[in-house]
Amino acid sequence: MARYSKKAQEQVEKTMHREKKGTLRSGSGAKVKSRKQAIAIALSEAREKGYKVPEKKESSKKATPRKAAAKKAATKKTTTKKAAPKKAAAKKGTRKKATAKKTTA
């Protein structure tokens, strides 16, 4: 038994022609440049028209480790930014003391 109906296959074919021609637009109005995005648009249009197309897959679990890594990197960056002003303030204080000694001597 076929997963996709004949009409759904035709819809994908038409959409791929539009993508190659450069007239296919995404929902936001931007020009579609990716083949995968063009296929996704075609399948969603086929679903809207009621053609036989498998349901959308849920996002894979691979996305969660990337998000966790991104959060770790973000926290490391913020901690280094917070430490930098403290060092700069300490240097300013030592400079004032050194100039004060020179004027008294």
TrEMBL record:
InterPro entries: DUF6496
Tree of life domain: Bacteria
Region entry Disordered, spans: 1-105
Comp. bias (Basic residues): 63-105
Pfam families for the chain: DUF6496
Chain segments annotated as transmembrane: none
Residue ranges with Basic and acidic residues bias: 7-16, 45-61
Protein's name according to its UniProt entry: DUF6496 domain-containing protein
Lineage: Bacteria, Pseudomonadati, Bacteroidota, Chitinophagia, Chitinophagales
